[in-house]
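Dear colleagues,

For the upcoming journal club I promised to circulate an example of a predicted protein-ligand complex. I picked one with manganese (II) ion because it came up in last month's discussion. The inputs are reproduced below in full, followed by the predicted structure.
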Amino acid sequence: MSTVWMNQLSWVDYEARMKQDQPAILLPVGALEQHGPHLPLGTDGLLSAAVAADAAGRIGALVAPMLSYGYKSQPKCGGGQHFCGTTSVDAATLIGSVRDAVREFARHGATKLVFVNGHYENQWFLTEGIDLGLRDLGTRSTLQVMRLEYWDFLSETTLASVFPDGFPGFALEHAAVIETSMMLHYHPGLVRLDLIPDEPPVDFPPYDVYPTRKHWVPLSGVLSSARGSSAEKGAAMAAELSTRIAAAITHEFG
Ligand code: ZN
Ligand code: MN
């Protein structure tokens, strides 16, 4: 069986896989969120799913259909909620989806579940959903869960070569060089290089205000420039990410 995608298997084949080789289940999590004029709304999920599929292929794991809606976009890392197209869920909704997933995959007999997050704002709500799901299952459960943000697997060496002029930090890397380069690698037909805005990195104050200040965020929605993106950089990052994520799963779960 060659596919890594769980939703392409029949239940009979899926059950056989679960019984025979106890594959890790990778569950990508994304968001529907503006990514500037040059990238699609689904970028976070498209990238977490692509990285998950590459990692899964290396270790015989399966990839479950992604959770496509993320927690509310924040001005300093995703531009904020005021953009048309950005479509987010309340924390309780995301926590509930994750808690349900933990319970359901445990019921299938899964012992290794990996949430592959592609949207910065999701992380603590994934953590909460995992915690509540494991609490529901109780101490007899053999399910182990990993949560990761895929960009954390980029090495200093790779970041230095992707950002020869210095790395602006992951929070400002929204619709910028990392995501644009990785989209050029995985989904080149969805990238509009001609529409990349040329703006300096945003300088946010060290606090937040509610209701959010829309004028803090450029009209384009891009927080630092995507100039300098390339498919070659995307390929190098994708290779490193999938290799290191696969190694981490093997290291923790065997
Ligand atoms: Zn993104
Ligand atoms: Mn995001």
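Two points we might discuss: The chain has a mean pLDDT of 97. The pocket of manganese (II) ion (ligand 2) is lined by residues 31, 33, 44, 78, 119-120 (CB under 6 Å).

See you all on Thursday,
B. R.
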